[in-house]
Specification:
heterodimer, A: about 120 residues, mainly beta, 7-stranded mixed sheet, 11 strands, about 0% helix, globular, B: about 110 residues, 5-stranded mixed sheet, 4-stranded antiparallel sheet, 9 strands
Chain lengths: ~120, ~110
C-alpha cells in the first residue's frame, strides 16, 4: 500500500529558530500534498495544500510567511516553521494524494516543541 | 464542504460489532464520505470511503443511506486495538477537512 514517510518524528528547537519537516511519498507520486496541525485533544486542522511545482494554497488564518511550504518534486514536500515561538508547538502531519482515485495517505506526524 | 456530525464518544465490548454513525445531511452529490481513525500521537489511518454504494474491505464496512444524508461505519469484531478517534469526512474537491470525530473505546 501507499506509504508516506515524515521526518523528524520529534524535534525540540529554541524560540526564534526555524525548523524544517519533510514529507515523502515512498511508493507513489503525490500530485498533491497537505499539511495539518493538531493541538492536544483537538482535531486536525488543515493548514495548506501544495501541488508539485506551484505555490501552496493556505487556509484562512494560516500565515504563509511563517509556514513555508515547498513541493519541489512529486515525492517530497517540506514545511518550514520560521522564527518558531512556543505557541507553534504542536503535532504537524502531512498527507499525500496520488493521481486517480487514490486515498489520502498520512505521515506519522512530527511533534514540535519550541522552548 | 459538507459538515459531518458524529457522537463525541462510544463504548463497545471486545468481540462485538462497533457501529459508528455519521450525519452529513448537507452532502452534495459528488462528495465522497471517508473514514479515518487516529490512534494517539500517530497519523490518521485510512479505513474506507464511498460515494453512494455500500462498501466493504478487510477492515470495515460502510453503509450509506439512500438519501446519502448519513452513514455508518461498522467494525465487525472490535478488538482493544481498535480504540481510537474515528473521523467521518465528506470530501469535496481535493481536501479532507476533519471534524471532531468519535472516540471509540473498546473494553474487555
Amino acid at each position: 500500500g501507499a506509504v508516506v514517510s515524515q521526518h523528524p518524528s520529534r524535534v525540540i528547537c529554541k524560540s526564534g529558530t526555524s525548523v524544517k519537516i519533510e514529507c515523502r511519498s515512498l511508493d507513489f507520486q503525490a500530485t498533491t500534498m497537505f499539511w495539518y496541525r493538531q493541538f492536544p485533544k483537538q482535531s486536525l486542522m488543515l493548514m495548506a495544500t501544495s501541488n508539485e511545482g506551484s505555490k501552496a494554497t493556505y487556509e484562512q488564518g494560516v500565515e504563509k510567511d511563517k509556514f513555508l511550504i515547498n513541493h519541489a518534486s512529486l515525492t517530497l514536500s517540506t514545511l518550514t516553521v520560521t522564527s518558531a515561538h512556543p505557541e507553534d508547538s504542536s503535532f504537524y502531519i502531512c498527507s499525500a494524494r496520488g493521481p486517480g482515485d487514490y486515498g489520502y495517505t498520512f505521515g506519522s506526524g512530527t511533534r514540535l516543541t519550541v522552548v | 464542504d459538507a459538515k459531518t456530525t458524529q457522537p463525541p464518544s462510544m463504548d463497545c465490548a471486545e468481540g462485538r460489532a462497533a457501529n459508528l454513525p455519521c450525519n452529513h445531511s448537507t452532502i452534495s452529490g459528488n462528495e465522497y464520505v471517508y473514514w479515518y481513525r487516529q490512534i494517539h500521537s500517530q497519523g490518521p489511518q485510512y479505513i474506507i470511503h464511498g460515494l453512494k454504494n455500500n462498501e466493504t474491505n478487510e477492515m470495515a464496512s460502510l453503509i450509506i443511506t439512500e438519501d446519502r444524508k448519513s452513514s455508518t461505519l461498522i467494525l465487525p469484531h472490535a478488538t482493544l486495538r481498535d480504540t481510537a478517534v474515528y473521523y467521518c469526512i465528506a470530501r469535496y474537491g481535493n481536501k479532507l477537512v476533519f471534524g471532531a470525530g468519535t472516540i471509540l473505546r473498546v473494553k474487555s
